[in-house]
Amino acid sequence: MRVRILVVALVAGISACGAPTAETAPRGQVPVTSASAEQGPALKAELTMQGKPGLGLLAATNQGSAPITFQGWPKLSFTDAAGERAAIPVEQKLVPGEGPSITLQPGQTAFAGVQLDVDDDTKSVAINEMTAELPGVPPAKVAFIGTDGRPISDLGTMKVSEAEVSTMQPSSQGVLAFG
Questions:
Q1: Which stretch is the leader sequence (predicted)?
Q2: What is the b/e burial string over 33-52, where b = at least 16 CB atoms within 10 angstroms of the residue's CB?
Q3: For the chain, how many structural domains are there in total?
Q4: How big is the CA angle at 88 (ends 100 and 28), to the nearest 5 degrees?
Q5: Which three-class secondary structure state does DSSP give residue 14?
Q6: Listed residue (129, 171, 145) closest to 55, CA to CA
């Protein structure tokens, strides 16, 4: 009987001492969270590079527990080697055409084409990170995947002066057809 009460008390004590929440985290520290229905929408974003320099297929997967509905273009942003926001202009292209309204159920993916102007001119910025954002979903860090299927971990060698992005589509067909 004592052992059972002790176990119950230990479990209750451990539960009460969980990770800090937004209400209990010390000022200036980010609270620790776990994926849950309370957390809301979550996005996984990968840019798989294609054979043409700077051309990539952006795959945005709903990793949340609820559907995400959006239309149009993903919002792309970049940081430089120092971790500061990089002023890289992103032009929205009607490729392959008008973006339909898309509802991604948990686990489903939508696609967009991305054309990065990778060169070494004076306007180019060595990028550290790219993020993609869909309406109503927090921005997601984009994982770059090489043409060999492996993650590209050091983006510092990629210098970008501008970018183009196609409309989000429910399939990858046509999203890479930049003119």
A1: 1-24
A2: eeeeeeeebbbbbbbbbeee
A3: 2
A4: 95
A5: helix
A6: 145
40-95 residue pLDDT tens: 679 999 999 999 999 999 999 999 999 999 999 999 999 998 999 999 999 999 99
pTM, entire model: 0.77
- Residues 66 and 95 placed together within one structural domain of the fold: yes
Q: Which CATH number do you get for residue 146?
A: 2.60.40
| Host domain of residue 12 | 1-33
Domain presence at residue 16:
yes
Do 27 and 47 lie in a common domain?
no
Residue 177 lies in a domain: no
**How many C-beta neighbours within 10 Å does residue 133 have?**
17
Neighbours of 141 (CB within 10 A): 12
Output the CA–CA distances (angstroms, integers) from residue 82 to 41, 120, 129, in the order listed.
29, 18, 10
Torsion of CA 121, 52, 132, 146, to 10 degrees: -110
The span from the CA of 176 to the CA of 179, in Å, is: 9
Tokens of 150: 């492996």
Whether residue 94 sits in one domain with residue 73: yes
